[in-house]
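## retry 2 of 3
previous attempt timed out at serialization; input unchanged, resubmitting
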Amino acid sequence: MAQRGKPQPGLPTRQQILDFIARSEEPAGKREIARAFGLKGQEKIELKALLKDMAEEGLIDGNRTAFHRMGGVAKVTVLRVVDTEDGEAIAIPDSWTPDDATPPPRLRLREGKRGPALRSGDRVLARTEETATGWIAHPMKKLPTATDQVLGVVEIDRSGKGWLAPVDKRVRNSSPIADLGGAEAGQLVLAEPAGRSPRAGVKVTAVLGDPLAPKAFSLIAIHKHGIPFAFSPETLAEGALAARLPLSAERREDLRHLPIVAIDPSDARDHDDAIWAEPDGQGGFRALVAIADVSFYVRPGSLLDREARKRGNSVYFPDRVVPMLPEVLSADVCSLRAGEDRAAMACHLEISAEGKVTSWRFTRAIVRIQEVIAYEEAQRRIDSGEAGENLVHLWEAWRALEKARQSRDPLDLDLPERRVKLDEQGRITEIALRERLDAHRVVEDFMIAANVAAAKALESKVAPVVYRIHEPPSREKLVALKDYLATFDRKLALGQVITPSLFNRMLKDVADDTEKALIMEAVLRSQTQAYYGPRNAGHFGLALGSYAHFTSPIRRYADLLVHRALVDGYGLEQPAPKGDLPPTSGLSDRDRSDLSRVSEAISAAERRAMEAERETIDRYVAAWLSSRVGEVFDCRITGVQRFGLFATIIGLGGDGLVPVSVLGDERFFHDEKAQVLAGESTGTRYGLGMILRLRLAEANPLTGALKFEPEDAEGRIEPRGKPLPLKKKGKHFAGPRGRPGNIRHQGKRR
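## retry succeeded, writing output
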């Protein structure tokens, strides 16, 4: 209100109007101002003139329904997200009218936990308020983005009109192009709506080139998901400065005498973990997990830190990596290279003969990795008896850890991972499922032990923890699983405690391979998605009560936060030289008081990365298969919907649709509980896990979409896959066909 108590009648002064607008909790327009000051008749006309004068004098802005002071923000207005800081979305008014010399105010968006994660370019209707620390906004509704960019391929019809063919397989229709912007037919472009109406079409804003060129598939995913991929010159300069921080053994534990090894994929771009073990003389083992000390180089509040928070994690594609940190750190100074002194966070473990970790401690250390070994080479040395003492001791310690793992009985599902190999020109040479080796399990179990130790160590210090949380299946999903199992005459009692062991026993009791595949698929679908959070809810899949991510700080921001908490908890601070970088390498005050916001942000960034990686693999698989349209494959049904089946090529993982229209001339009914399509006349049933011989009818590299038809239904779907130049080894795919399963690269997300 303009004054304390009831306002006096009569035309208010300019200052009274400004005070009322500032204090009003609702949008303050001409009507609200008149009501607040008790204006009637002629006074309302005078108020209108006064507001017009104030606008011309630069005191207020807006319209008759909502005014705000010039340079300020309306109480309720449309904002556009432009950035993220400290895990919060930053937005500016969508329409900013002051002259160009006045920059738009930046508002921190306080997003609700249930709302969709906001990213750059999103528009929201929000309630705003100005606080002592700056503007904040509370989103009320997410709006259609007027400048949403669309990725697609230019097509020119016979009349010369341009059309944008989408690369997102969820979008079915092409859009008319109002402005080609110099683009030519067949080029991959970015476009945005040319007007408010869909009839206005789109205008091309950037030409990206040949959509089938090397690295185009990952580029599509990067643009589609809004993944930050370029570092600013200022951030790169700060990365170079951080890389020059002196590494001294004086304030670190010197572990350079230990023969520590890094076991990684043969194509690893960075090495952030290494391991060592030796017998303790009492049947157990002393072990060390050395992790790159990223927190020493990336300080809270620095440009490097803000960029890493925004990215959340590195994103891995077959043809490139979009790193969380600049290359000078991620691939050089922080990476644990063989024969070079490196800063490390060391996790010292004592392991009993039964595989129980009995004690742990954390130090900042200096290490010199003896050797970087590929998984396949480490396994070959063990199998051939050529392994040195260090590898032998690692395997012995792992067998102890494996006993503890078997005792916990974590969820054991076959989760195949596709591997795309490219030649130097970026062309596909092979696609196959990664082979699961003991070497993968060795590293994975050491990493799990270190992750558990980090979580428990911080709990003992009563320090903040960013937990990796995997909650048990929801009751809703368990009821659906119960109904599905009933179709096999199998029971799931919902009154009992649901554990991973329960699912494992259920699968072991199934002798028939087809039925086992069906039930495994259903169990997998019942699981929740893992996420990060400061409140511990355990890790259901790993059967662990406390679990955090500690072992990959080069590629995951969650691990960096855990490292910082350990720096605080164990008194491991090492200030940077004055005047160069922020001095502290522990948690910031903001994160120490509340980890919820950043945990939600990095969980959303992880989901974004997973979608982008999966879609890119789908595009590569479709490109690989585009020259094999018409061939017949053994496929397993992975999804059943009323409009058709989803099937996966066995041994390759290419996922595609079998439209219900090609299954036969009869009518098919969808049994949602049983996850079955059943023919009305013949009773033919198609259900989850069934193996079918299917002909590949279509492979679209741009969308990653595949379509299949039954072997005896050739021609029902017109082949439209465009063959690509590929390098093939004989008629079939080259590569290993071992037992599918999680390998370490994928397992790092567990």
